[in-house]
Structures are given as structure tokens and as C-alpha cells.
């Protein structure tokens, strides 16, 4: 995934449908996000087309419908977006990001324990 791809929350919602299902037609994506987004079919088709231009989805034609699938993994998108966030807001310093989360009380005690365990695992892998 390119470092320059930026995705909106809505675009990620569409990708979530494709990641969960593997592939889906425009109407299936529309139905899946209807309860939370209530978008018209034409809007979903436009959004999927834009995602394809960003090379994060692809499609094939099946009869009169397009069937889409994600060409990037959820993990790739997370890594890219966290990397971009860290660069733009924290000068590329991951420790500054973590420090902000902890100082802003965005992380509770149980999450801190989980983070410590993850850091311990990462340390052990590097030894």
C-alpha cells in the first residue's frame, strides 16, 4: 500500500464489508452499511470507484453488477494510517504518540497492562 493513500472513515467502512465478506457487489456493500450510513446505491458505487482509483479495491463484472474485493489488508491500512498520523502529528516519533495517549488518559489501566505485555514480547523477539 502506498504511503500517500489516505482513507476516510466512510471509505474504511466500505473496506470493512469487503474484508469481512471477501468480495461483494455494489448492492451488497450498500445493504451492509445501510443501517449505519443510509447511502444511496449510486453513492456507494462512486465511493467504490474512488477506492479503485486509489488501488485499494478491484472489481470484476458479473452480469450487470460489479463485484469488488479489497487489494490491501486491514493490517496494511492500519500500518499506513498510523505511520501517516505519527509523521504528521508527532514528527515521526512513535514514543510521542504513545506518550500523548497515556497523558491524555486515552488508555486505561487494563490497556496499559496489555501494552506492557506487547512491549515485553517485542523486546523478547529482538533479543
UniProtKB/TrEMBL annotation:
Keywords: DNA-binding, Transcription, Transcription regulation. Belongs to the BlaI transcriptional regulatory family. This is BlaI/MecI/CopY family transcriptional regulator. It comes from Gaopeijia maritima. The lineage of its organism: Bacteria, Pseudomonadati, Gemmatimonadota, Longimicrobiia, Gaopeijiales.
